[in-house]
Specification:
Layout: H1 16-30, H2 36-43, H3 47-53, E1 68-76, H4 81-91, E2 95-101, E3 108-116, H5 124-132, E4 137-145
Antiparallel strand pairs: 1-3, 1-4, 2-3
C-alpha cells in the first residue's frame, strides 16, 4: 500500500481508537475542549494514541490541507495580541488571506482570520492548540472551511 492510497470505510467497522480520535478532533474544532489533553481525557483516549493517528484519520468531508479556513477569536483588548496570533500563524506557515477585527466591547474584541493551509508545517489541530496558548486569547474556533 502506498502512502497516498485512501479507503472510504464506514465508521462502525473501524477499531474504537479511530472513532475516539475523530471525537477528540470534533471537540477541538468546535471549541468545546480548550486543549488536546482536555479533549483526550473527556473521550477516554491516550494522547499518544491521538498523536499516532491524528494525521491519518479524517472525516469524509475533511479538507484542511490546501484549503481556506476561517478562524474566529475572542481576544482581550491590549497592544500586541493580534501580533502574537500572526506570529504563530507565520511560524506554522499558514498563509493569511484576511484579518477582520471588531471594535472591543467590555474589553474583548472579535477577530476573524482566513488562512490557506496548504503550506502549513503541522496540522490544523496543532495550530489551534498553539493559538489557544497565547495570553489574551479567550476563545477560538473554526468558523468555516472551504
Amino acid at each position: 500500500m502506498s502512502d497516498s492510497e485512501f479507503f472510504l470505510v464506514k465508521a462502525e467497522v473501524l477499531p474504537d481508537v479511530f472513532n475516539k480520535v475523530m471525537a477528540v478532533k470534533r471537540l477541538l474544532s468546535s471549541g468545546k475542549a480548550e486543549s488536546i489533553n482536555v479533549a483526550c481525557n473527556r473521550i477516554g483516549l491516550s494522547r499518544s494514541a491521538y498523536y499516532k493517528y491524528k494525521d491519518a484519520v479524517l472525516p469524509f468531508y475533511e479538507t484542511s490541507r490546501g484549503r481556506m479556513v476561517t478562524l474566529i477569536f475572542a481576544v482581550e483588548n491590549f497592544p500586541g495580541i493580534l501580533s502574537g496570533i500572526i506570529t504563530v500563524l507565520a511560524k506554522e506557515k499558514a498563509n493569511v488571506l484576511t484579518i477582520n477585527q471588531n471594535i472591543p466591547i467590555n474589553g474583548l474584541a472579535d477577530v476573524s482570520i482566513s488562512i490557506e493551509t496548504d503550506r502549513m508545517t503541522g496540522s490544523l489541530e496543532d495550530l489551534l492548540d498553539e493559538l489557544g496558548k497565547i495570553p489574551g486569547v479567550r476563545s477560538y474556533k473554526i468558523l468555516a472551511r472551504d
